[in-house]
Amino acid sequence: MSHWLYLPELASTGTAAVLEDAEAAHAVRARRLRVGDVVCVFDGAGRTAAARISEVIKRPFEVHLALEAQQHWAPPAARIHLTSALPKGDRQTTMLDMVTQLGVTDFTPVNFERSVSRVGTGSQDRWRRVLIESCKQSQQPWMPLVHSPMDLGEWISSPTDDGVVNLVAHKEGESRNAVIEESLVGAKQVRLLIGPEGGFSENELAQLDHTQTTMVSLGGGVLRVEAAAVALTALVTRTLSDSRIGSRPDKGSA
Amino acid sequence: MSHWLYLPELASTGTAAVLEDAEAAHAVRARRLRVGDVVCVFDGAGRTAAARISEVIKRPFEVHLALEAQQHWAPPAARIHLTSALPKGDRQTTMLDMVTQLGVTDFTPVNFERSVSRVGTGSQDRWRRVLIESCKQSQQPWMPLVHSPMDLGEWISSPTDDGVVNLVAHKEGESRNAVIEESLVGAKQVRLLIGPEGGFSENELAQLDHTQTTMVSLGGGVLRVEAAAVALTALVTRTLSDSRIGSRPDKGSA
């Protein structure tokens, strides 16, 4: 199992590449990689390549790589789109890290009446760095896309073509796995909606009542946003990995 | 939904109690509670009581409470015992926080051949503070019990009476919910085993092969310990909350 390194321009790269700045420093300092080590470079858009480290320069850090043939992985058969209230502070990155490991493909922050956090300056950059690290960790060739925040009204009125399945985390929701499985058969995009910790307002619940959604109970106690997000993501990715329900391209076949 | 405050000596407390030190400071500073506010005190062992704040003293902090009748909640019908490799650093508390919210009742660190972290000095104290906060957050009257670390050999040779179900997180494991559901019917204790990030050794896998366990696939990519722990816990607590499979005492009936 080789280390993964991020090379966003992989598509336009031939047989040689140079990593610089933070990525090079990370490879040498944190990963302690040396000349001769074999790594995997990825661009977060489905391309990977095995690469051998041919030279390491310090001050400033540069890692020179000799690349082998690229592989191009098929995108996941079903997109898993986390649309959730923003947790506070560090819990945002904890959430994004874990759901990326579990296979989320898209993330959109949603604003609710009782939301306590909004997208701040610098959030997108911080999230991007977390997503890169999570892809490396979990060896995901596709990096989740982060979309602009939306209000619940926009979420509800988003056009949902055939194949979009909406699941909403809710204490009083469905607890039978079989019902969730049935709702996911043939899904092309699964949107997971997680409300704020103060819960949905009466008005929001009424709006959701008129929308094609399945409310899903997650068990346990009162959940923080990130715990609910991870639990619902785990339920969906696991269910879709059952070949009778979803079909996820096998990495080995690329 | 009132704030929860921790009062470990609730069992021997009459109609008045005083919170001191960190718990009192937390109530006043972080929660901004004042005289007249109604809170819920809990002892982590199934007892709760509604309480009204009768006096707040600063320097040093004291919160005086007038307690109403105690409630005694039944323990969960099935214990959910997380037995896992220790993640590094802060990821230990992230894991314990989330699995407590989801309803884990017991935690035992397990040492594997490829374990990178061991229980350190002060870990137990730090974990205990996290568990208290997670119980408050998720309104769980039962606090998870933290047991001494064990080696995998001890885990395997632990006496498993009738009603103990062993689930092991494993990439190549079972992906059908129905099989997991079947294994959980009538469970009195579910032990969730999460290996280290380097994976089980050949030797460990061979030992596990001779043990009564179900290997469970969690979907997604290569998972960190805490992501796997949360995903497997979520699967189990959710499945047990399905009344056809598990029966969890209803808080409302205490």
Question: How is the secondary structure organized here?
Answer:
The structure is a homodimer of 254-residue chains.
Chain A: E1 4-6, E2 16-20, H1 21-30, E3 38-42, E4 47-57, E5 62-72, E6 79-84, H2 90-102, E7 106-111, H3 123-138, E8 145-146, E9 150-151, H4 152-157, E10 164-174, H5 177-184, E11 189-194, H6 202-209, E12 214-216, H7 225-241
Parallel strand pairs in A: 1-3, 6-7, 6-11, 7-8, 7-9, 10-11, 10-12
Antiparallel strand pairs in A: 2-5, 3-4, 4-5
Explain this structure.
2 copies of one chain form a homodimer. Chain A has 254 residues and is α/β, with parallel strands linked by helices. Chain A folds into 2 domains: 4-72, Ribosomal Protein L25, Chain P, CATH 2.40.240; 79-241, SPOUT methyltransferase, trefoil knot domain (Alpha/beta knot), CATH 3.40.1280.10. Chain A has 7 helices and 12 strands. Chain A has helices spanning 21-30, 90-102, 123-138, 152-157, 177-184, 202-209, 225-241, and strands spanning 4-6, 16-20, 38-42, 47-57, 62-72, 79-84, 106-111, 145-146, 150-151, 164-174, 189-194, 214-216. In chain A, strands 6, 7, 8, 9, 10, 11 and 12 form a 7-stranded parallel sheet that branches. The first copy, chain A, has a 5-stranded mixed sheet with strand order 1-3-4-5-2. In chain A, strand 3 and strand 4 form a beta hairpin. The two termini of chain A are 17 Å apart. The model of chain A is unreliable at 248-254 (pLDDT under 50). Chain A binds chain B through residues 1, 94, 97-98, 101-103, 137-140, 175-178, 181, 217-224, 226-227, 230-231, 234-235, 237-244, and chain B through 1, 94, 97-98, 101-103, 137-140, 175-178, 181, 217-224, 226-227, 230-231, 234-235, 237-244.
